[in-house]
Amino acid sequence: MITVLRELWTDTPIAFWLVLAAGLYYVVMAVRLTIVDIKHKLLPNRIVFPSAGIAGVLLLSASLFMLDGGTALRTVLGAVVMWAVYVVLRLISPSSMGYGDVKLAFVLGLYLGFIGWSAVFWGTVLAFLFGAVWGLALIVTRKGTGKTQIPFGPFMLAGALVAMVAG
User: Fold this and answer.
1) Of the four, 5, 32, 104, 153, which is 20 to 30 A from 46 by CA?
2) Tally of domains within the chain
3) pLDDT band for position 146 (50/70/90)?
């Protein structure tokens, strides 16, 4: 995202401000969702659904100002692909993946798709890697077992953030 912002600043200032607003919104959304998910193991629709709309409008508007239909298409497809992957995971193992995670995947796919397919890939991989490391830490410290359920939203948000910043 930082590289994208740097390029937009010189090429398309309006798109720069739209992407910056989307990034700042991401931080606010991520903090709110992380707190709620850790406390209640829930990613509420009242945060996730508006986030999809806000991210979609800001990022797609930016791609229009960039005159880049490919970025707009990739933004939408990134969201659909991530959502579909999480739907499949939910169908395979309903007890390990909540519907909130599936809905959040769509939102994160918008952000990551805007950046590129490698960001979609790495944001997803990092989420599972961060979650696995946390799960192993719980097992090693004997604060959990292999069956301990952990809120996955914070790991999804962290993985996407790393992919966006490194992107």
Assistant:
1) 5
2) 1
3) confident
